[in-house]
Amino acid sequence: MRKFSYVLILAGILIMLYPKANEWYNDWQQDKLLESAELSTSESTPPPDLKSRYAEVTQLLAEESALDAQAQPQETEKPEPEIEVGGKVIALIEIDKIDLKLPVLEGATKANMKHAAAHMKETTPIGEMGNAAIAAHRARTTGRLFNRLNEVVIGDTITVKTSDQTYNYEVYDISVVLPSDVSVLDGNNKDKILTLITCDPLVDPTHRLIVHAKLS
């Protein structure tokens, strides 16, 4: 009889402690999950900063220029297969002054810049406050890609058309800078800026031709 009483007492104590024990267990599980999440966050690789990403883009431009300098294949040779374009078309860029009309793809990758202009997705979206950068290869074929960008002068208009808006930018600055000069992507917190980037000079490029325009 006494043993049965002990069992009842123990059962009562366990029933009383269950809610608290359950709470302790839930807290313990939550702490484990939080610790795991914090560890995962601390060990994850941070996205590349704008400086390193810009360096990659200007290097891609230089590489494409070197490839373009190679001798053209003979007529009897089979053309090289096209590189697949990975980005989606987000706009159309036009510069009447140099008879330029190009699709603008999202993401300045090697594949995208092989066939079109490419918006650096790390920069401001087109038409918004800040500095939106568009890069393209300066092909040696006259009129292809940004081949004639050096003919643009201050005051010229650059038109960028998206699916729902047309933006007219006026060129206000043109410069030739070192490939490492990421300051060309700076904004001023008051203007909607468009920056066009390509190689300079056309043959054996050592610098980058930069065209800055403001939304008019």
Automatic annotation (TrEMBL):
Gene3D superfamilies: Sortase. The lineage of its organism: Bacteria, Bacillati, Bacillota, Bacilli, Bacillales. InterPro entries: Sortase, Sortase_D_2, Sortase_dom-sf. Pfam families: Sortase. The keyword Hydrolase applies. Keywords: Hydrolase. The keyword Aminoacyl-tRNA synthetase does not apply. This is Class C sortase.
